[in-house]
Amino acid sequence: xxxxxxxxxxxxxxxxxxxxxxxxxxxxxxxxxxxxxxxxxxxxxxxxxxxxxxxxxxxxxxxxxxxxxxxxxxxxxxxxxxxxxxxxxxxxxxxxxxxxxxxxxxxxxxxxxxxxxxxxxxxxxxxxxxxxxxxxxxxxx
Length: 141
Fold this sequence. Notes:
The chain has helices at 3-40, 43-76, 80-105, 112-116, 119-126. It is an all-alpha fold and 141 residues long.
């Protein structure tokens, strides 16, 4: 088996995994939506849950499918046309990812601190460790 054939098989595996992630994510989203609908008695809760769960699965599936396209383009057939198609696919995927994130979170990514009270920003700055409450009388930094 040549390197090109091996990379083509790897790309096919990634495509299969991406398709499985999408299918399993959809089934899981249906189950979560049914559970939330049954618990709350509100169809809106089930719909919200389905959008969040399937949106996350869709984002993951798109990432995996882009990895398959990347392997195929770079390792199997690195022509200018294939690279241009890959660039277009990545551009579309980025737009879809951005749009899905806004749909799932309900807020623009750069406005997330307004929704969460800044805890995400503080965790990102501190590397994930929570800050103790500040005491204005304490002179230590």
